[in-house]
Structure formats: structure tokens, C-alpha cells
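User: I'm putting together notes for a lab meeting next week and I want to include a structural view of one of the chains we've been expressing. I don't have a solved structure, so I'd like a prediction I can at least talk through. The sequence is below, exactly as it appears in our construct file.
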Amino acid sequence: MNFEIKTFFRNAVIYSLGMIAERALAFFLIPLYTRQLSTDDFGLLSIVRTFTECLRPVILLGLPVAIKRSYLQKDINNEKRKVLLGTCLIWSLIYSFVMNSGIIVFSHKLSMTFFKRADFANLFCLISITLFLSKFNYLYYAILQAKQESKKYILISLSYLVLSCILNLYLLIVLKLNVKGILFSNLIASFIIVIPAILFFLKNSKFVFDFQVIKNLLGFGLLIVPVSYATWILDLSDRYFLIHYTNLTEIGYYEIGYKIGMLLNLIVVMPFQIAWPVYYFSKGKNQDFCQQYKRIFDLLIITLLIVWLGLALFSKPILTILAPPQYLKSNQVIALVALAYVFNGIQIFFHCGIHLSGKSKYLTFIIIFSALINIILNYLFIPRYGILGAAWSTVFSFGIMVLLTYLVSQRYFKYKIHLQKLIYNILILGMIYILFQLFIHNSSVLTLALKLLAFSSFSLICFRIYKINIISLYSQKVQLLLHTISKEQI
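Assistant: Thanks for the context. Below is the predicted structure for the 490-residue chain, given as C-alpha cells.
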């Protein structure tokens, strides 16, 4: 393996671990938040986060990706890089100042629009200042990625996470500042972490403004904004419908259920999303890739279905550990949210055929179309069914996305999968879940034992149907890892 490939894999692993650590830390903060915040406060935090993520694309304008692309061009020398960084810095200062000042000026109006009360205006001011600082952090992260300084990138990003976590503990537990404390902790952490970013730009920038440079950057970056908003719609837009048709308490229930349902995404989908493209881009032209394609799909499906069943059957005990009794209603949406991310994992698998056939542009259309469907379903379901309507809307939207991705992938990439086995597993899974939902839904020790028996039986059935020896499979993986380590030592 040559040096470039080794560097690529090393950086991919480091970025992956950093991203997973970030999501894992956010998940493990749930017990702190639920015990320090009321359901109303948790709903308020959800709306604040949704508003922040809604603003982020229009604040960034795709510049982090655009500047990384320009920084890596072969015909660019150090002098041009300094002009690039200086132009980007000047634009960001002016544009972000104008945008974020507008948020502060209209903070009372925003508070009245979202919450029908003016006393949350200060939250929008905190969001605005944090977004202003974080833009320079995102630009700095992009440069570090372009320079392949993955260790420095992870060190800074994890420092931000640890610092914000410590500040959260102090401001929530000691000072009892509730949602305002969480926003203050993010602001303080962003202010501290932006210091190395500013020092880097001051050292490596030439402070001239080149209109052609910013035109090229925005010309590329603005293409990313629609996809960013489509992704935001799929993940977060239902909160706006919920605040309009329900209340902050209901949103608090939904947010906790959503976070626990997304545990499947953290355990299965994110590691797969990182590893799968690296594998199919490097092995996609091999003669045996067809068999590996089927095998990997089978293993992904088994893992997704088993983890989903575990979350669905044991969602109430998990919720009891993570949150106090007043959040028990969140249990209604956990299985549905997890199911949506099962679809998301399958959809990521089918990216393989689209990317290898050079038809990646179709993924943009699929995401945008699915986002539009999600808006329509939110409008139809949430007024009538509340948080259950929001969860079902997410399931159907991700289901449509995986169906469209599969159809496009199969049109250009004719590899087959074991659909019949998949249908068998889904039918068995559905019967188990419906049985426990309709007839066995108390919290006795006997019920817990029956759930464990059902979970174990389904896992064994899965491996039996797909003819997979799990002990042999993992022993092979361990042997391969040990062989690789011993080879590197030699």
C-alpha cells in the first residue's frame, strides 16, 4: 500500500472516530439534560437547535467546502492561497456581521413568531453570536482537512466538545441556568476555540479582496445550500410543525424519543457510512465484488434489524435509565425513529451503485424530492396525530428516499440482493413487535424475559436464514486484524 493510500485511510479513521465521539458525547448528555431541564425546557432547546441548524447553511453558504476545493487546486501557489484566505476572511466578516446583526435586531420578533412571547429574544442573540464565531471555526476546519492535518483537526474539535461539556455541567448543575446555560456554554467554547482559527488566518492571509475569488467560491458553495436545507428538512423541520400545532412539552417528548431512536444511527449507520465508500471505491472493479456486495448487504440488514428490534423491545427500560418518569411518553416514537434510520442505512448502501456508475447527481434530486414529501406529510400528519404523526412522516420520507435510491442504483448497477430473505426477516420482525405491542406490554420480569427470548430467537433466525456463522465470522475478522498488526511490526 503506497503512502497516499495509507494517509487517506489514516485520516478517514481519525475523522470517523471524531465524528462518532461527538455524537456519542451528545447522547450521553441526555441524562444530565433530562434531570436538569423540564419537558418544556427540553422542547425549547429542541426548537433553538432547529433554528440554529436552519440558519447555518445560509451563514456558511457552502464556503468551507468551496475553500477546501480551491485550496487543493494544483495551479495555486502560496501567494494565491494567501489571497484566497484573505478574501474569504474579509467576506465572512462583513457578510456574517450583517446577517447576525439582523438576527439580533429582530430577536424580539423572532421570539414572538416562534414562541408567541418576547422573553426568549436573548436566546436568539446568543445563537447569533455563536454562529458568527463558529463560521470561522468551520473555515479553519476545512483548511486543516485540505492540509491533511487530521490530528490537529480532531484535537481542536474534541477540545471544543470537552470544554462545552464541562461548561454545561457547571452552568446547568451549579448555576441552574437551564437552556440559557447550554447556549452560554456553546458561546464560550466557540469563543475560546476560534482563537487558533483567527491566529491562523492572520498569519497566512493577505488582506486584499479579490472579487473573482469570492465569485468562484460562492459559485461552487451555493450549490451545496439546497442539499443542506433538504437534509435539514428531513431531520428537523417537523419541530416547526410541532411548535405550531402542539406545545413545547410535546416537542420535549419527541426530542428525547428521537435522540434515543437515533442510537441505531450512532451504533450502525455512521460507522457503515464511513467505511462503505472507502471499500467500494477501492474494490468496486474487482471480479468478486458482486458476491461481496451481496454479503455486505446481508450483514448490514442483519445488524440493522437486530439493533432495531433491541431498541423497539427495550425502549422503555432504556428511557427509564436515561430520563425521569415525566418523559415516558417519548417511548411512543423511539421505534419509529429507529425504523427511519434503518431505511437511512439501507439507502446509504445503495449509494454504491450510483457513485460507481457516475450518476451521483441523482442523489441530490432524491434528497430534495424526499424533503418535499416530508413537508407535505408533516402538514398532513402532525395537526392530527402530533408527535406520532411527526415520527410516521419521518419513516415514510426515509422509506421513499431508500426506494428511489434503490431504483436508480438498479438501473445503472445490476447487482442483485437477497430480497426474498429480507422480506422473510421483516415479516418475522413485524410479528414479534406487533405481538408485544398489542398483547404483552406490561413491565413485569416475565415480560422482560419473553422479550429477551424473542430478541435472541430472532437473531438466531436471521443468521440461520442468511447462513452466517457469527462466531466464525468474527474470528476471521480478529485473525485478519492480528495478521495485519504482525505484518506491520515486521
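A couple of points you could mention at the meeting. DSSP finds 21 helices and no strands in the chain. The mean pLDDT is 84.

User: Perfect, that's what I needed.
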